[in-house]
Design goal:
Radius of gyration of chain A: 16 Å
Radius of gyration of chain B: 19 Å
Oligomer: heterodimer
Order of helices and strands of chain B: HHEHEHHEHEEHEHHHEHEHHH
Largest interface: A-B, 48 and 42 residues
Number of strands of chain A: 12
CATH superfamily of chain A: Class I glutamine amidotransferase (GATase) domain
Largest sheet of chain B: 8 strands, parallel
Order of helices and strands of chain A: EHEEHHEHEEEEEEEEH
Number of domains of chain A: 1
Number of helices of chain A: 5
Distance between the termini of chain B: 41 Å
CATH topology of chain A: Rossmann fold
Largest sheet of chain A: 7 strands, mixed
Structural class of chain B: alpha/beta
Distance between the termini of chain A: 11 Å
Strand content of chain B: 5-15%
């Protein structure tokens, strides 16, 4: 595709419940900084509540929130199959925290139905309750470009038994917190609660891979 | 592209003052982080693990553990205190969504007990009988985030200055009447809008009138929003009630007596969740209104004497 193309990439944010507005804000910010990954294109965010909202999207974000609540909403809105088809068509997806849980092949400690797009098991609330929530920098030795990233963990899950095809892009305290399985990205932390646009830029970069 | 501290944190940090900054801006960010995760959702009052499971299955984003829902507290009279630990712990064990619980206004020891128990959010609530008629809890000093009720912008900013990580309208709990929540939402949102039109030198006088910290007033004027999420509570009984609150600027809703005092709690719980997600789509709110059974009984505000109004508690 031509780098000078004037049309925009539309990135959907699942807006059933959670901090979807924070992700939409990140997408607006990404458009404003004219990040190199955009190659001159505009990025436009769109709230996704129904199947037809997926039409024309280049990428999708599953936000933070309550994974049980969002999982119920995915079933109620009959979005599970369309999201599988979206991924199968080669479109990238990013899930943060609750979104990451929903992307995994299964979830333990109060199981929820998951999409199975990342070959890992999500251990829910693995750090404890809200009093155990924290923020910390990524460990040294992360994938290039993510050095010094500050990660906010809110009742966060851990990712276990990663499949052979899953690449760990960043760890915190030795735990994988940012992984990639093909074009599916998952973080157990909340990049959308900071001003650091690098995770969202990585999602947009994956559109043209 | 990397910045570590945003304007919200800075404003709140400043508002706390240099000697009062016992809690770092980072800790405040973590507290507000959980409030962010609850946006777009419905937080339901529950009194048993069974009710908590019904709420979770219906799509609640959190539950509020209580011994009695507000309409029963209103009916029974007497002193309403923090819920028994057994009830809260039983509910914590039964669900994976966040569990909140209420403390009496100013009762920082009840709050310490709930913090030790590991509840996810503490509601310093006018629904319980106030423990202190002069001071609210110093919420900056806790690891657990707090939500507080407010009837107007000044009250909201005073609570945020004390460390609240979420604001909700007081409404009139247990009334099944949305009119007070609407009044409080319109008041907070309208006063925010008005602040954004002021010149910088006018903000100090306005802060004095609002009896609110100047740095928080400046933040609101610059950003056109509160520095923490703004939810609605008090009197929500139907799916359109929830949608109305969202349309008036609430970012999520609390439903107290409205669910489990209705004829069919499970159906109504699902319906309120659906209407909160799709508040912009009347066709979807209509779907949520079908087959609901009877709503809870409501109370006309004129029949409530001033001393019976829970929203008058706190300042």
């Amino acid at each position: 595709m031509s780098p000078s193309s004037s049309h925009s990439w539309i990135v959907g944010v699942l807006a059933i419940q959670g901090d979807f507005e924070a992700h939409l804000k990140m997408l607006r910010a990404l458009g404003e900084v004219r990040d190199a990954s955009l190659r001159g294109r505009a990025v436009v965010g769109r709230a996704v509540r129904k199947v037809q909202d997926l039409d024309g999207l280049s990428a999708l974000i599953l936000p933070g929130g309550e994974s049980t609540t969002i999982s119920k909403g995915l079933a109620r809105e009959e979005l599970v199959k369309p999201i599988h088809e979206f991924a199968a068509a080669g479109h990238p997806i990013l899930g943060t925290c609750a979104g990451a849980i929903l992307l995994c092949r299964s979830a333990e400690n109060h199981p929820v139905p998951t999409l199975g797009l990342v070959d890992a098991v999500a251990l829910r609330n693995a750090y404890g309750t809200q009093v155990d929530s924290f923020a910390q920098l990524v460990d040294p030795g992360c994938a290039p470009g993510f050095e010094g990233m500050r990660c906010v963990f809110i009742r966060a899950p851990k990712l276990a038994t990663l499949g052979a095809g899953v690449e760990v892009l960043a760890r915190v305290g030795g735990e994988p917190v940012f992984v990639r399985d093909g074009k599916i990205l998952a973080t157990t932390f909340h990049p959308e609660l900071t001003d650091d646009l690098r995770v969202h830029a990585a999602l947009v970069a994956a559109i043209r891979e | 592209m990397t910045k570590t501290k945003n304007a919200t944190q800075t404003a709140v940090e400043k508002a706390k003052g240099s000697d009062g900054a016992r809690t770092s801006a980072q800790a405040f960010e973590i507290k507000v982080g959980l409030a962010e995760m609850l946006k777009g959702g419905v937080i339901m009052d529950v009194t048993t693990p069974e009710q908590a499971k019904i709420a979770e299955q219906a799509g609640a984003s959190a539950v509020m553990a209580l011994e009695r829902v507000p309409s029963d507290i209103r009916r029974d009279g007497g002193v309403a205190r923090m819920c028994s630990i057994e009830v809260i712990a039983g509910i914590q064990d039964s669900v994976s969504i966040p569990v909140m619980a209420k403390v009496r206004i100013g009762h920082f020891l009840e709050a310490r007990v709930l913090e030790s128990l590991g509840v996810d959010f503490i509601d310093e609530s006018e629904v319980l009988t106030p423990a202190d008629e002069a001071y609210h809890v110093d919420k900056n000093d806790f690891k657990t985030p707090f939500v507080c009720g407010a009837t107007d912008l000044g009250e909201a900013l005073r609570r945020i200055g004390e460390g609240a990580a979420m604001i909700r309208t007081k409404g009139e709990a247990g009334s099944g009447n949305i009119v007070e929540a609407v009044r409080h939402l319109r008041s907070v949102v309208g006063e925010i809008r008005a602040l954004t039109t002021l010149r910088p030198e006018e903000l100090a006088s306005r802060a004095k009138e609002l009896r609110a910290p100047i740095d928080l007033v400046r933040f609101v004027a610059a950003h056109g929003r509160l520095p923490v999420p703004n939810f609605a509570a008090g009197g929500i009984a139907t799916p359109p009630d929830a949608a109305l609150c969202m349309a008036l600027g609430a970012e999520a809703v609390f439903v107290g007596s409205g669910i489990f005092k209705s004829e069919d709690p499970e159906t109504r719980a699902r319906a309120v969740v659906h209407a909160t997600t799709h508040w912009q789509d009347p066709g979807e709110v209509l779907k949520a209104c079908r087959g609901l059974g009877r709503a809870m009984e409501g109370i006309e505000m004129k029949t409530l004497a001033e001393h019976e109004r829970l929203a008058n508690r706190g300042w």
